[in-house]
What we know:
This protein is mainly α. It has helices at residues 2-11, 19-30, 32-44, 46-59, 71-94, 97-114, 121-133, 136-157.
Amino acid sequence: MITQLEALVDGAEGSYATVQDIRNLEHIMSSWPERKDTYLAVQEKEQSIIDRAMEFLHENQSFVEAKSVDSLMVDRCRRDITFTLRSYALGMLLQDEEMLKDRVIYWQKNILQAMGLQNNQGVKMVYKAICLELTAEQANLLKPYFKLGQDMIMSSSN
């Protein structure tokens, strides 16, 4: 939404917004109640989503290149999962893929690589936890943002 609003302001500088710009803004605003409710649900269930994601990661340690996982790595992983969840939820709330890419996904690719995580397994685990903790409609609102992250992370590992 922020990116679209900035484009609207930049495009309408000294003139009126186009009919298409206004339609795009109406579309963004029409889905606000669902996006807001989903964002608040993520906030409310954050701890259980993170706990589930951590369980999935523990069960699937094969995607971690290191032979053992120490407590420092677990703490960092929990911190990064929390940041990921909050950032993807904010991207969905603001309906802003560009902001998500610029502020989060590029950072996330580097963190995942530094931690020795292969591909996008961590992002998949967070989304899997979301699907169990939120309604199907809420998970579907978040899905395009997680898919964007997965696709970008996968493209960097090829």
